[in-house]
Write a structure and sequence with these properties.
The complex is a heterodimer of chains A (about 575) and B (about 240).
Chain A (H helix, E strand, L loop, with lengths): L3 E12 L3 H12 L4 E4 L51 E2 L29 H4 L1 H5 L9 H15 L24 H12 L5 E2 L34 H13 L2 E4 L2 E8 L5 E8 L4 E12 L3 H10 L24 E8 L20 E3 L16 E7 L28 H10 L3 E8 L8 E9 L5 E6 L4 H20 L3 E2 L48 E3 L14 H20 L4
Parallel strand pairs in A: 1-2, 1-8, 2-5, 3-14, 8-16
Antiparallel strand pairs in A: 4-10, 6-7, 7-8, 9-12, 9-15, 10-11, 11-12, 13-14
Helix pairs in contact in A: 1-6, 1-10, 4-10, 5-9
Chain B lengths: L2 H10 L21 H9 L7 H12 L5 H14 L14 H11 L4 H19 L8 H11 L12 H19 L2 H7 L14 H6 L6 H4 L23
Classes of the chains: A alpha/beta (about 575), B mainly alpha (about 240).
Chain lengths: ~575, ~240
């Protein structure tokens, strides 16, 4: 098979069109650079009526939205989930790492929760506080200008709260809390847990003339056809492709390797066109990897050459290591006071929560048995029914002394009286990055394109287990304080206190982490490979540590910073 | 606010800007156009990928439940959700068709449903020497009464398979019903249309003895200015 080579030499070849790749595409193309953007999935535009799921009614799906073909349900806007057909990944030992991949323009940003939290000053230097993990080679002050630009560029609602480690920004105004959120606020305050307006990249107010304003359908996970939430497809890539004339978009194209020359510098990429299953090569002055933390690690590890025998960027055996995801645990509460509530108003609200609890304690001062912290997300309300609605609804009678089971009018009454009477909490916390938690190339398995796949090795430690216990203890306190009764069995020690699988929170980071010392890091403080100075990483791989925050806002701020650096370095002819 | 009122507000208000397009918030008059729905499903316009369209076609083309089973399911569905003064019965909402589809789409339902239906006929035969659907309403209810409630004390061990089956039937009937227009109206769900959320209505706040903290409200969106382009001072204070 002959590899088809293009004669164009791009200023930058960007791999992946999600949060990081999308940002790089926007910044580099607007600066006049000639850019190739390569995406492994198909083209996707949230406003295309053929693919749109937003505003669909449950009955428009014959399975009423059940998660048969999409893990988060028919209407979730992600092509690909824990599984991608023909593209497996494997586990080492008893590891059960879950890896979510969205194969489409915009990647996972089409369906994400839009929770957009800046990392704070402590988050970049947490080793200074507790001696664990490593400090980032950069500080909050280095990233702050980019967070500021990002807030104004993409839009995020929230509020300035003067909290040291949850920095203020340029926020759009927050939506008012819904009824169940008022219950949560009351309960949390009673037990001393802080609550503030949530911070989501949804436009509650006009940001510019290109994008619409939120019309409160609560369906951001379906991707907004008015472009009123942030998806990389609608906000970055499509405008860059249409507006700058500088972007060549390659969809359904799966990058196999980064190609290098005798000096060890990158010369471009080799990719498989999924449509004709042939291999192609593109040439570029720089390669910008934004394929997602694990996919980027996979490409680098598969890019072996005489100059990079251990894989590109992997001369010190750090690629794929220090993989870490957020911790997660959750619990639901039945709130009798919310029974038989008035339903004659639309409380859909924005997609996700209107309020949340940022981390409110201090591991040292409060003498906790785990380091770092977590934030609490709240859910509940009178959501639109879909598959699963009404399942075992009458069992809630056990909390109020009513009869369980039945049929007819009694059952109708149950459905109505319990509608919107459950409130849930979910903790999302920081784990410590460990060298022995990693992804690597499985020597025995290739995907349908012949590309060796990833194998995961990941174990939680007591740090994360103790944190999960603290989460459910706190949820129970808040739940009780808001008049709720915990539902279902409380996970015990044997079940790690309900700690979810690694990967399951979909905040995996750290596989190409940045650092000043090439011996224990893959990239430098500009997300530039130590081993090849014209290769950059713009996804969460570069995170030295995850905070008790979600990673997307920081991915984008860093991708913007790295893009500025690339422009500068190309101008100075340093790379 | 009712859907219809809200739409009116919407059209005279500022939400119906150009970017909203024509694809959202359409069905606001409380009726279902089955014709449009089936046509949309046919060409995959509930947002399917080509692979998903093929999956749906494959499932729709399969036969699992037979006529007798579907007839029995229809009788059971209407025992579970009979018509009321305000709302139609489960069969009016075409719940049996949903169950017919879902057991093919989620095969783990197949054996419990098929076996449970057979168990029900067996029980009817034992008690009344006829199949369930040919029993009188009184006879049917006599059996249903024995399987519609959990048997926590283990007083009716022979009913256990029936109780399990009926619980599954109840779940599928409720889901099938409350995911239709008829079901949403019965439930009182009033969302899924473009609107402007401006907080919990005052009478609801009063009902629940909660209120908005003025300091919190000060951070919230002034919906009369939602279409003014955001501008901030250098300290991050919103100016518009």
């Amino acid at each position: 098979m002959q590899i088809k080579k293009s004669s164009t030499v791009y200023d930058a070849i960007i791999v992946g069109s999600g949060a990081g790749g999308g940002m790089a595409t926007k910044i580099l193309s607007e600066a006049g650079l000639k850019v190739a953007l390569i995406e492994a999935g198909p083209f996707f535009d949230p406003k295309d009526p053929v693919t749109q799921t937003q505003m669909k009614w449950p009955w428009e799906s014959p399975r009423r939205g059940a998660s048969v073909t999409r893990a988060f349900g028919d209407y979730d806007m992600s092509y690909g989930d824990w599984k991608v057909d023909g593209e497996p990944y494997t586990q080492k030992g008893d590891t059960n790492f879950l890896w979510w991949r969205s194969r489409m323009l915009g990647g996972r940003t089409n369906h994400w929760g839009r929770i957009s939290l800046r990392f704070g000053p402590t988050d970049f230097k947490h080793k200074d506080v507790d001696g664990l993990g490593d400090n980032w080679p950069i500080s909050y002050e280095d990233v702050k200008p980019y967070y500021d630009r990002l807030d104004k560029m993409v839009g995020v609602f929230g509020s300035n709260e003067k909290r040291y480690n949850d920095p203020d920004g340029f926020f759009l105004p927050a939506p008012k809390p819904r009824l169940h959120e008022l219950y949560y606020i009351k309960g949390a305050k009673k037990v001393g847990v802080d609550v503030i307006p949530s911070r989501l990249s949804i436009l509650t107010k006009k940001l510019n003339n290109e994008r619409g304003v939120c019309f409160y359908c609560s369906q951001c996970n379906r991707s907004c056809n008015a472009y009123a939430d942030f998806s990389s497809s609608s906000v970055f890539v499509i405008p860059a492709v249409n507006g700058t004339g500088q972007v060549d978009l390659y969809v359904d194209s799966m990058v196999r390797t980064v190609t290098t020359n005798d000096e060890g510098k990158a010369t471009g990429v080799s990719y498989i066109n999924k449509k004709d299953r042939k291999e192609y090569q593109l040439k570029g002055k720089t390669v910008v990897l934004g394929a997602s933390a694990c996919s980027t690690a996979r490409i680098l590890l598969n890019s072996k050459s005489k100059q990079h025998p251990n894989g590109l960027g992997n001369s010190t055996d750090n690629v794929g290591r220090y993989l870490h995801d957020s911790t997660g645990a959750g619990r639901a509460y039945f709130v009798p006071a919310l029974m038989n509530r008035k339903t004659d108003y639309n409380e859909d609200g924005v997609g996700g929560m209107h309020v949340y609890s940022p981390w409110w304690l201090d591991a040292k001062k409060d003498k906790l048995d785990f380091p770092r912290g977590y934030h609490i997300e709240v859910w509940g309300g009178m959501g639109m029914p879909s598959y699963g609605f009404g399942f075992d609804v009458s069992s809630l009678n056990k909390y109020i002394g009513g009869a369980i089971g039945g049929y007819g009018d009694k059952l109708r009454k149950d459905v109505k009286q319990f509608f919107g009477a459950v409130v849930g909490m979910a903790g999302r916390g920081e784990s410590i990055a460990l060298r022995d938690n990693y992804c690597e190339i499985d020597p025995d398995v290739v995907d349908q394109f012949g590309i060796p796949v990833l194998r995961f090795n990941y174990k939680w430690s007591d740090n994360e287990r103790n944190q999960a216990k603290h989460m459910i203890d706190t949820f129970d306190e808040i739940g009780q304080a808001m008049g709720g009764i915990p539902m279902g069995e409380r996970a015990g020690k044997d079940k790690d206190w309900g700690l979810l699988n690694p990967g399951q929170i979909i905040h995996e980071v750290g596989t190409t982490r940045m650092g000043n010392d090439p011996k224990n890091s893959v990239t430098n403080k500009y997300s530039q490979l130590h081993d090849a100075d014209n290769v950059f990483v713009v996804d969460a791989g570069v995170f030295t540590s995850q905070a008790d925050k979600n990673c997307t806002w920081t991915i984008m701020a860093l991708a913007m910073r790295t893009s500025d650096y690339i422009i500068d370095q190309l101008k100075k002819q340093n790379i | 606010m009712k859907r219809r009122d809200s739409l009116k507000t919407l059209l005279v208000g500022t939400v119906a800007g150009a970017t909203l397009g024509s694809t959202i918030g359409c069905k606001t008059d409380g009726t279902t156009t089955t014709e449009a729905t089936s046509e949309v499903a046919e060409i995959g316009l509930y947002g399917r990928t080509p692979k998903e369209i093929a999956h749906d076609k494959k499932i729709t083309g399969q036969v699992y439940l037979n006529e007798h089973e579907l007839t029995t399911i229809a009788v059971l569905c209407d025992i579970i959700l009979p018509a009321t003064a305000d709302a139609g019965a489960a069969t009016d909402a075409e719940v049996p068709a949903f169950i017919d589809f879902i057991v093919k789409d989620i095969p783990s339902h197949q054996l419990p449903i098929r076996g449970g239906l057979m168990w029900l006929d067996g029980e009817a035969n034992q008690r009344f020497n006829k199949e369930f659907i040919t029993c009188s309403n009184t006879e049917q209810i006599q059996i249903i009464e024995d399987i519609a409630y959990p048997d926590d004390d283990g007083k009716k061990p022979l009913m256990a398979p029936g109780i399990k089956f009926f619980s599954r039937m109840r779940n599928l009937t409720l889901t099938g019903y409350y995911t239709t227009r008829m079901g949403l109206d019965d439930l009182g769900y009033t969302g899924n249309y473009a609107n402007v959320w401006d907080g919990v209505p005052a009478e609801v706040l009063k009902d629940h003895e909660v209120d908005y903290d003025p300091a919190w409200l000060a951070k919230c969106v002034d919906q009369s200015k939602r279409m003014d382009i955001a501008e901030w001072d250098d300290a991050g204070n919103l100016l518009t």
